[in-house]
Amino acid sequence: MSESPYILRSDNEGVVTLTLNRPQNRNALSFGMLEALRDTLAQIAEDENARVAILAGAGPGFCAGHDLKEMRATGFDDAFVERLFKLCSEVMQAIVHLPKPVIARVHGIATAAGAQLVASADLAFAAKDARFATPGVNIGLFCLTPAVALSRNLANKHMMQMLLSGELIDAETALRFGLVNEVVAGDTLTEVTAAFARKVASRSPLTLAVGKRAFSQLTELPLSEAYAHASKLMADNLKAHDAREGIEAFLDKRDPVWRGR
């Protein structure tokens, strides 16, 4: 196994790109890969210069899901498998709870836990050649943990179509299902994703964090509770410097100066 890092990180104008770096096995989520991703996300959460994160994959595909060869090498040890799935769940929740927007940049395949990564991200841009699947049913292992993330993106019938068939769907179908935001030519994927990330990164980091956290909370509440909670959050948000600065800048027809507070 190569000693190169599991995750490659590059920073540019507030946009942090994290590239899964095991192209020889389609960036399968081994225990080491998951640990590295968890630790890198924790670093980004505390990095004031990081505004937006892009999650990508090196080589011919985005992510082929869990590393089945690693599982077999342990003899499918119960303790290892339990720790592996627990760690994977922690990583997916770290993406959801990261106080910065996360954009998946998908090419090639995104299958099983790879599709789970896409569904856990806030946004996803896909190349026309991208393919998605939850193929666990084909090998006797139903994709239950990916289903958690998919259920927060897809209608139930679309989700069950993927889970029960195990078949690959193309990028346009993923767009129709709601798994990705946009499908673009492969040779433009990197720039299209980066351009959108830079646009988001130009916003107040405080506002982005407030909005992402609130969105997750509001979707879980009944309608009346959601409005009550949102009203309080907006009133609190208005007390922030960046909100006042943004309103003043809009009215004065100038660019705002964000302070992240």
Automatic annotation (TrEMBL):
Protein's name according to its UniProt entry: Enoyl-CoA hydratase domain-containing protein 3, mitochondrial
Organism lineage string: Bacteria, Pseudomonadati, Pseudomonadota, Alphaproteobacteria, Hyphomicrobiales
Annotated PANTHER family: ENOYL-COA HYDRATASE DOMAIN-CONTAINING PROTEIN 3, MITOCHONDRIAL (PTHR43602:SF1), PTHR43602
Record function comment: May play a role in fatty acid biosynthesis and insulin sensitivity.
Molecular functions (GO terms): hydro-lyase activity; isomerase activity
Record bears the keyword Lipid metabolism: yes
Membrane spanning stretches: none
Record family assignment: Belongs to the enoyl-CoA hydratase/isomerase family.
Keyword Isomerase annotated: yes
Species this chain originates from: Rhodomicrobium vannielii (strain ATCC 17100 / DSM 162 / LMG 4299 / NCIMB 10020 / ATH 3.1.1)
Any Gene Ontology biological process: fatty acid metabolic process
